[in-house]
C-alpha cells in the first residue's frame, strides 16, 4: 500500500514498455522477470490476476454468468453444465444472484468489480494477485470480498493485495509492505505496523484516513438552488432502484450520497444531469447556465479519456471549447500534484490515481456550476485522496460550485458533506430518504 509510482499504468504497475529485472520463484519454477512471456502459461491456473479496472477485464459482449462459466470450463476443466452451476453459485455468494444475465454496461461499478472477482478466481489458481479488489464497494461488500479471497486461498495458496484501503489491509492481515514512489518505506506484520508505524510517511498515510478527518465547516450562507428533485423514482430494466427521493443542492453546498453497491447512487447523479430519464418525479436545473455548467467526474477515468490521444491534446480541446486560458492547466496541474510530463502521455501510460486527478482538472477547466463526483477518490491513496477532496470542496467554498459526491466511504461523506442522502438496497421498504443536515447547511 502507499502512493503509486510516477509512470505507473492504469493498474498501478509500471507503464508499458518498462522492463523488469530479478527472478520470481513459484513452486519449483524460477522465472526471469525480464521475460514476462514465460509467465503466460501460469495465468489462470497457477496465478489469478484481478485487475483494478473491471471494465478492462470483462468482455463487453458477454453476460456476467457466461464469463464466469467460461473460466470454470476452459481453465478449471469443468463440464459445461457444472461450470454454469458453479458460476451461478459464485454470483449468489457475491450478492449478484440476479445479475447473471446482464452485460457489463448494465452493472454498477461495484457490481462489475464483484463479477470480475468471480471470473478471476474461477480458474482455481493457488496464487491470487488482486489490484484494488474492493474499489467502489461499500464496507459490508468489502469485508465479504476480503473473506471470500482469503477462503479461496485455502491452506496452500497465496494472496497478494495491492490497495489504498486501510480497512481492507487490516482485515486481510498477514504481512504488509508500505511503498512510496516505488520504494519500500516499511514492512512487517500488518498488526505491528498498524499498532506502531515506524516511519513518518506511514504515520502520515494512516492519519489521512477519512476516519481521522476533522469535519468540514458548513457553508454559513449557501446560495440559491442549482439543482433540485421532487418525488424522484428511477427504474433500471425491471428493477426499481429507489422512489420518493427529494433533494435540493445549493450553490456552494456539498451534498453527499451513500449506500450499498447497486442501490442507484450513480444513476441518481446521471438523472440529475439529464443523462437518463426518471421513471417518476421532477428535476429542476438552474436556468440561464452556460452549456458546460453541469459536469460529471466519472468513477472510471480510463473509460472517460480517448485512449489514442495524449492527455495534453485532450485537455487542449477542453481549453478551446471552454474559452479559458491555457495557463489554467498548469495552475491546476500544480494544485493537484501532477507532473507536467503526464501531458505527453496517453491514458494507458498513466496510473489510475493520476488519471482521476486529470479528470478532475478537466472538469474544473469548464468553470461548472454543478459537479457530480462519482466515487472521485476510489483510486487514490489516502494522502492524495485528502488533497483532492480539499480541492473539490474548496471549489464549492470559494467558487460557489454545487457539488454532489457519491461514495461508499461513509466517513468521507460524514466529514465532508453539508447534507447527506442515504439510499438502501433496491426493493427494501426502508429506501426512503434519510437526510442528515449539519448545523448551518441548507434547510
UniProtKB/TrEMBL annotation:
Gene3D superfamilies: P-loop containing nucleotide triphosphate hydrolases. The keyword Transport applies. Residues 1-20, 424-443 are annotated as: Disordered. Residues 1-206, 227-443 form the ABC transporter domain. Keywords: ATP-binding, Cell membrane, Membrane, Nucleotide-binding, Transport. Residues 434-443 have a biased composition (Basic residues). InterPro entries: AAA+_ATPase, ABC_Ni/Peptide_Import, ABC_transporter-like_ATP-bd, ABC_transporter-like_CS, P-loop_NTPase. It is a peripheral membrane protein. It is found in: Cell inner membrane. One of its GO terms (molecular function) is ATP binding. Belongs to the ABC transporter superfamily. This is ATP-binding cassette domain-containing protein. It comes from Sulfitobacter porphyrae.
Amino acid at each position: 500500500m502507499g502512493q503509486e509510482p510516477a509512470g505507473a499504468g492504469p493498474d498501478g504497475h509500471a507503464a508499458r514498455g518498462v522492463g523488469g529485472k530479478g527472478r520470481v520463484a513459484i513452486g519449483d519454477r524460477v522465472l526471469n522477470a525480464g521475460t514476462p512471456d514465460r509467465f503466460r502459461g501460469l495465468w489462470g491456473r497457477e496465478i489469478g490476476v484481478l485487475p483494478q479496472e473491471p471494465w478492462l477485464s470483462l468482455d463487453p459482449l458477454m453476460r456476467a454468468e457466461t464469463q464466469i462459466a467460461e473460466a470454470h470450463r476452459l481453465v478449471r476443466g469443468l463440464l459445461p453444465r457444472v461450470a454454469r452451476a458453479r458460476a451461478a453459485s459464485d454470483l449468489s455468494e457475491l450478492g449478484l444472484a440476479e445479475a447473471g444475465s446482464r452485460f457489463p454496461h448494465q452493472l454498477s461499478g461495484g457490481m462489475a468489480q464483484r463479477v470480475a472477482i468471480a471470473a478471476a478466481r474461477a480458474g482455481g489458481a493457488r496464487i491470487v494477485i488482486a489490484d484494488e479488489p474492493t474499489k467502489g464497494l461499500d464496507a459490508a461488500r468489502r469485508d465479504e470480498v476480503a473473506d471470500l479471497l482469503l477462503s479461496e486461498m485455502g491452506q496452500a495458496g497465496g494472496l497478494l493485495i495491492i490497495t489504498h484501503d486501510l480497512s481492507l489491509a487490516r482485515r486481510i492481515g498477514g504481512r504488509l509492505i508500505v511503498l512510496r514512489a516505488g520504494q519500500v518505506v516499511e514492512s512487517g506484520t500488518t498488526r505491528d505496523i498498524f499498532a506502531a508505524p515506524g516511519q513518518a510517511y506511514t504515520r502520515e498515510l494512516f492519519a489521512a484516513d477519512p476516519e481521522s478527518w476533522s469535519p468540514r465547516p458548513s457553508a454559513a450562507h449557501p446560495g440559491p438552488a442549482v439543482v433540485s428533485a421532487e418525488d424522484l423514482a428511477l427504474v433500471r430494466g425491471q428493477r426499481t432502484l429507489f422512489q420518493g427521493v427529494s433533494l435540493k443542492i445549493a450553490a456552494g453546498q456539498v451534498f453527499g450520497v451513500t449506500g450499498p453497491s447497486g442501490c442507484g447512487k450513480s444513476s441518481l447523479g446521471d438523472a440529475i444531469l439529464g443523462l437518463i430519464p426518471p421513471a417518476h418525479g421532477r428535476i429542476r436545473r438552474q436556468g440561464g447556465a452556460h452549456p458546460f455548467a453541469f459536469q460529471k467526474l466519472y468513477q472510471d477515468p480510463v473509460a472517460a479519456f480517448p485512449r489514442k490521444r495524449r492527455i495534453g491534446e485532450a485537455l487542449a480541446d477542453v481549453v478551446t471549447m471552454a474559452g479559458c486560458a491555457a495557463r489554467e492547466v498548469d495552475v491546476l496541474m500544480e494544485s493537484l500534484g501532477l507532473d507536467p510530463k503526464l501531458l505527453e502521455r496517453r491514458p494507458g501510460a498513466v496510473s489510475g490515481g493520476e488519471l482521476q486527478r486529470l479528470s478532475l482538472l478537466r472538469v474544473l477547466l469548464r468553470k461548472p456550476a454543478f459537479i457530480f463526483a462519482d466515487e472521485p477518490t476510489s483510486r487514490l491513496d489516502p494522502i492524495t485522496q485528502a488533497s483532492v477532496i480539499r480541492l473539490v470542496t474548496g471549489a464549492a467554498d470559494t467558487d460557489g460550485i454545487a457539488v454532489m459526491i457519491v461514495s461508499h466511504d461513509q466517513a468521507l461523506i460524514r466529514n465532508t458533506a453539508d447534507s447527506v442522502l442515504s439510499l438502501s438496497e433496491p426493493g427494501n421498504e426502508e429506501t426512503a430518504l434519510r437526510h442528515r443536515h449539519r448545523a448551518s447547511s441548507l434547510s
